[in-house]
Write a structure and sequence with these properties.
Blueprint lengths: L2 H13 L4 E5 L2 E5 L10 E2 L10 H14 L5 E5 L7 H7 L2 E13 L3 H12 L6 E6 L4 H11 L3 H12 L5 E8 L2 E11 L2 E9 L8 H15 L4 E7 L3 H10 L2 E11 L3
Parallel strand pairs: 9-10
Antiparallel strand pairs: 1-2, 2-3, 4-11, 5-10, 5-11, 6-7, 7-8, 8-9
């Protein structure tokens, strides 16, 4: 297993937690009232052989999610343990969904990058103001919900997850003429910052707002002692992939979900 990949995957479990989790022979079962596959899936990052067969362990996981009235989902990577798990799940009617690229960027020269970016944009950035809150608030949740067109349930589910997360966080909002136009969350785990929920309001897209916001967020992360930033982007999200490429992010591995097709 690539050690860097494992560190980033483990960090992802810490920076985006679950309301409930339990260890089953090395696998991490995560449940969070159904909001997002990331917080409601089995993470088979490690595997410890016991008297329980692999088939019995899969069945145990299925029973846990059925009891919680949630879909049965496994988060898969090329370094999932055991290595035969993806093939086995395929034979058990698990369908692949949501292939995602995990991307990493060094923050070593982020200050210099930001200065060059500001020089290239001239006065256009003067219209923007940036606000970072290090504690979540109902105001930030309301703004993010409006920009992302989330339901109240989604917004409150994120609030619950952030409430149980004790890691340093930045809830960043970009304002244009005092109007919130973009937002994101940055969460610090040791030397890494995970970036989540990057949102630009529909009416404000393709103006470079997300790029300016993420530069600001990465500078904050460096001030907190982080040396790398990582994020996740869907394989078909070409606009976001292009943005992250401009920012200097590079793919290090991919993950996908195996979702049980219930009969």
């Amino acid at each position: 297993m690539n050690r860097l990949w494992e560190k980033i995957e483990q960090s992802s479990l810490q920076t985006w937690p679950a309301l409930q989790s339990k260890q089953v022979n090395g696998w991490n079962l995560r449940l969070s009232d159904g909001y997002s596959k990331r917080s409601n899936s089995v993470s088979p990052l490690h595997y410890v052989e016991t008297a329980m067969t692999l088939g019995e362990q899969i069945a145990y996981c299925e029973a846990e999610y059925h009891q919680a009235q949630l879909p049965v989902v496994f988060k898969m990577t090329s370094f999932t343990q055991p290595s035969t798990l993806d093939t086995i799940l395929n034979t058990r009617s698990y369908q692949i969904q949501d292939e995602t690229s995990v991307q990493l960027k060094s923050l070593a020269v982020i200050d210099e990058e930001v200065e060059r970016y500001k020089a290239s944009k001239g006065e256009s950035l003067s219209e923007l103001t940036f606000s970072i809150q290090e504690q979540w608030s109902q105001e930030w949740i309301r703004q993010a919900s409006a920009l992302g067109e989330w339901s109240d349930q989604v917004g409150q589910s994120i609030a619950k997850l952030m409430n149980v997360n004790t890691l340093p966080k930045a809830y960043i909002t970009v304002y244009q003429a005092e109007q919130p136009v973009a937002c994101a969350i940055g969460i610090i785990d040791s030397e890494y910052m995970g970036i989540y929920d990057v949102i630009t309001g529909t009416a404000y897209r393709r103006q470079g707002l997300a790029r300016a916001m993420l530069y600001h967020l990465m500078q904050w992360a460096k001030e907190q002692g982080a040396t790398y930033a990582y994020l996740h982007v869907g394989e078909h999200n070409e606009v976001a992939i292009g943005l992250y490429r401009k920012l200097g992010f590079e793919e290090i591995y991919r993950y996908w979900y195996r979702v049980l097709l219930e009969k």
